[in-house]
Write a structure and sequence with these properties.
signal, 10 helices, six-stranded antiparallel beta barrel, two-stranded antiparallel sheet, alpha+beta, globular, 263 residues, OBAP-like, single chain, OBAP family protein
């Protein structure tokens, strides 16, 4: 596993390795960066260390949709840090260029840890079996051997994803409140136009990748995951006071009570 992530890290450091082919999807308002700020930025990049950023060791590209609104789909560029053998974390952007917009975060845990979660918590997580086996989740730039080893690790994990910038509709600034996102679980759910556009930019063939991963062993989805398939649609609701942590209360609400899945 250590050698695998070292390979991924080296790939990220290599120029042109799965990068700079997916520009940001939004354009933020604001004055051009001043010479003073440019100088401060350049100086900080040389003088300051960034351990959490430097710990990022893999790049994954896949797709999400709003919990409760399968028509709200978008590509998500994940930059992943391995915390231990059971837990990973990812920062998610709307592109893979220097000016990509930070879109959200995803926490990824093993099947073993997922099964220890309480029932209500499990509803917030989605499976990765289909994403891996279908070829819709890719690790741009990795050689096939490393890709297969990485995907064999990810296939039976579970993710909890929150998007803070809804770049499919908010084209200037991050508006509203965070949205819980889900992953696709079957053929016919993902807009094929999104997949074809992604494959073209990265010069990959999702159908060929699916065949290459046919022998990756995927366990049955653990009970409680992908709760949206059973009608359990959860999104955040604006509340007064201390939010879900006030007096131990939770303030999640079904999307149908909020007028839609996306905030």
């Amino acid at each position: 596993m250590q050698k695998l992530w070292l390979s991924a890290a080296l790939c990220l450091l290599a120029s042109g390795c799965g990068a700079n082919n997916s520009p940001a999807q939004v354009s933020t308002p604001g004055a051009p960066t001043s010479a003073k700020l440019q100088m401060l930025d350049a100086g900080a990049s040389v003088m300051q260390s960034r351990p959490p950023i430097e710990a990022i060791s893999a790049y994954l590209d896949g797709f999400h949709f709003y919990n409760g609104d399968q028509n709200g789909q978008m590509e998500a560029h994940h930059y992943v840090t391995v915390l231990n053998d059971d837990v990973m974390q990812a920062v998610i952007y709307d592109g893979n260029t220097r000016d990509a917009r930070l879109m959200g975060v995803e926490y990824i845990i093993s099947e073993r840890l997922y099964k220890t979660l309480p029932p209500e918590e499990k509803k917030l997580w989605h499976s990765h079996q289909y994403e891996v086996k279908s070829g819709s989740l890719i690790a741009p730039g990795l050689p096939q051997v490393a890709d297969k080893a990485l995907m064999s690790k990810i296939v039976n994990t579970y993710g909890k994803t929150w998007h803070t910038w809804h770049t499919d509709r908010d084209k200037t600034l991050p508006l509203g409140i965070p949205a819980l996102m889900m992953g696709f679980t079957a053929d016919g759910q993902l807009d094929n136009r999104l997949l074809e556009d992604r494959d073209k930019r990265f010069d990959v063939d999702s159908k060929a990748i699916r065949q290459e991963r046919a022998d990756i062993i995927a366990h049955p989805v653990a009970k409680g995951a992908n709760a949206w398939q059973q009608g359990e649609v959860i999104q955040l609701q604006r509340v007064k006071g201390g939010g879900e942590h006030a007096h131990g209360e939770t303030h999640f609400a079904p999307a149908e009570q909020l007028g839609g899945a996306a905030p």
